Automatic annotation (TrEMBL):
Protein name: DNA-binding transcriptional regulator, MocR family, contains an aminotransferase domain
Annotated GO MF terms: DNA binding; DNA-binding transcription factor activity; pyridoxal phosphate binding; transaminase activity
Database matches in PROSITE patterns: HTH_GNTR
UniProt record similarity statement: In the C-terminal section; belongs to the class-I pyridoxal-phosphate-dependent aminotransferase family.
HTH gntR-type domain span: 15-83
Keyword Transferase: yes
Amino acid sequence: MHIQDALGDWSDRPGPLYARLSAALGAAIERGDIPPGTVLPPERSLARRLAIGRNTVTHAYAHLRDRGILETRQGSGSWVAGARRTGEARSPRESLPVAALRNPAALIDLATAALPAHHRLRAAVAALGAADADTAAALDAPGYHPAGLPALRAALAARLTEQGLATDADQVLVTTGDQQALSLLAAHALPDRQPAVVETPTSPGILDVLHGLSVAVRGARPVTSGSDELLALIDRVRPGLVYLVPTLGPHGRVLGADDRARLARALADRDTLVVDDVSQAGLVFDQQPPPLAACAQSDNLVTVGSLSKLHWGGLRIGWVRGSAPLVAALGRAKARADLGTPVLDQVLATRLLPVEDDVRAERVAVLRDQLSHASAALTAALPEFRWLPPDGGLSLWLRLPTGTATAFSEVSARFGVAVVPGGVLSPDGLADDHVRVVYARPPQVFDEGLRRLAAAWVRYRHATDDQPVLL
């Protein structure tokens, strides 16, 4: 577990700041979240990541040493007592803060890029209670469909064909969300832990998957700014997997038609599995672009999608579109993992696909209004921040005028608003001068979150490395 996850809402505790940190560290050690022998981060490093003064960490560590919980040796750092030192005192990849786990009653969540359930989904849920033929047929069967409910696989294939990517049902695998799709693909493409290439910034999900596989990850600039750097990196590294989001990545941009076709043809010539994540394609403001695989016929171009972004975050239905042999191999791996995605969720998804265009039109209209409101509010409240209007999606990619997003997000959380620091969306931390802020919230909720964010920025920008950010 990452140390900041283990600490949780540490600053909400009573007492001086050093005592709050000491108590949170002690509790995490007692729970076993930070096991004996674990080397803790150096004082300056932890202070920077928590946006507090170094002296605060020094006093917290000293208090734990006095209680016999920590051991320290000059030149070797501090580690949890009770076992020999394990690991190294290096900074692991930051984990994505999950606002729902951090006191949701007090926190305004501008971090989670998800929408509430659309009214058509609510109606479809209600209709599941009806004894229609499709639901009855699904309930009469044993319920094990490792590759997905046949009706849903056929419906997804038809939908992709309509979007310009000719697809048969045996080329589609239904997964439990797009995160499972990425896990299956990464395990398949990287059996010997070959390196992987992603964009910077990218999806936190793929970084979590690759981090779990202990794969070396290399980052390139987003493909919206050109593909030459990406192709040169692929040729140099020779990765087993390339993961791209040319349609509404964290930066909110969509790769144009000509550049998309040119990139697809170039990638089709490379000997690597290329994953094109189109999970947010339904939220593009203008015309929805085709997947990369529709621009160049090649078995190494794989498409991953999800119904969660458009319809509801709680609808954990994802899919993989690839060659039939690849889908069959992934299906065997999925069968070993869970025997199949829940069938009633798939019945629900099958009912939503025919109305997806209507859902998309309604979602986009609301998002345009919310973006207009958020843009005006941000310009007034945080005029020093910079961003480009997105081509769709749920978030804004804001550039800080100074400082690091990781430290600023810690201060923001203590002011009661969650945002995503860019460092967790990059394999090398190079995006830590940006924060991702979800604008897709009711205006009154966004305005209150922005008020807290602006107050946090005032406090943060006056802090120095050696001055604690006191509340």
